[in-house]
Fold this sequence. Notes:
3 domains, 544 residues, Beta-Lactamase, 15 helices, 6-stranded antiparallel sheet
Amino acid sequence: MAVKFRRMNILIFTVAFCVMAIMLIVLLNDVIASISADYASQYAFSSAETLSAHIDREITLVSQVAHSNSVMEWMADESNEDKMALAVEEMMGMVKELYSYNLYVGLESSLNQYRVGVDFLEDDILLIDVLEVIDPYDEWYFRTIDSGRDYLLDIGIDREIYRKRVWIDYAVKRDGVALGVISTGLEFSHVVGELFMHYDNNNIRGMIIDERGIIHMDSALMGDREFLFSEYEAHISEEFSNPELLEAIEAQMDLADGYFDETSEPVIVELQSGPYRNATITPIRSANWSVIILSGSVSLFDISNFVPILITVLVLLSAVTLVTSAANYRLIFLPLGKLDQSLTALRENTEGRIFGADRDDELGDLSKTIQDLFTKANVDALTGIYNRRFMENNLEQIMEMLSRANGLLSVMMIDIDFFKRFNDAYGHDQGDVCLKEVARIMSSGIMRISDFAARYGGEEFVVVLPNTDEKGACIVAEKMLDRVRGLCIKHSGSTVCHYVTVSVGVTTGKVVYGQNWKQYIKRADEALYASKKNGRNRFTFLEM
């Protein structure tokens, strides 16, 4: 059986391996090229998500200030010092959570501009009085008021520190009436560095453009101070003339009517000319900007490239699994299952046969050996029921199991009354017949698979009843007395009856850790002695 199983599995796996190897060789070149392009796409997705996370966090913080009642009250009544103090306190609690530690506030009523920020020399938060009056050319303010949106994003110079920032300009409105604008910014060079610092500009180029096509971030200009710290504007069409790329970018910009959300999908373009072969255009959530990653990969990654090999592997592995499982079941598990069932049944009927004993393979040899060993080790040769060794081993295991749940255990000691006189009167051959009949009654008088009867020695028997209380054990003892008497085996030497009778000792106790099976046997023997002392042909119960 083992040889057949090994040969079958070797053949199946060899065929499957050869087929998969051929498929892998055919598809290997395409897969390798596809993976390189996939990395470029992942760069784009990751960059867009990183910048979106920065922007979302700042927008959430600024929004909390913009929707504060105390801030809106002050903007509506700028000259009220009490309202100003409450608004300043509200804003001070938020400033240190902002990336720039600064809030710029423009008021619609007076067009005054304020700054709430950290004085790093004093390590304190101060309200700076009017920085300047907003004039009609302050595009950031009026563009936000006129946009009708909650916020606008822009890139420009922070004139307080002379650094380029990604600005978030948030409109403050109450009941649809504009009260002003609150603005903060992310450090431009930090954001650019975090997104593009790991790119190899010879193979991959990363950019961020707005809805107008203006390039705000370009990995190719990472070392250019003019790009990082001053006003710099270049249109995407000034950098690239590839028609497929420009067409895809224009289509993406047309979708940025408002700001991109979670439903906005990236676009992957295969370029037919120029130094790059692939471009991934990924919209930035909460903004109207997009990340563009250009790659020199020779082929565009497409998940469909893996479909044939995935289907092939799946089918082959499924077939191997099914065939192997069927072979395992038929050759091994089904016979072993029947063998297990026969061994379980053997506990109820010691004269039963173990499955597979008539086979001529390894399982047949195993079954024959088990049958022989089981019989010799556990079954009394004369009576056919379990012997004392089986009783001792199994009683010990049963007590260990019952001790975990404080379960009940009942044990019965049974002795044939005046058995020596029976042998003297009828001979040992008839004595053996008597022992067999009484043993049969003991074994058939128990119904549960966990109960068992065993020959203890000579004319003594033991019955073990796990999870049986006093009442149940006494019922079993009474039945055994009646059934033995019902055998009507004549016994002229008995002083209690004309037929063979037995005396029974019963004990029941709650099994606890540390108890020994010998204690139950001893107590049942004491109960048996009491039955004999009180006239035999009866049972006596003694608690443990």
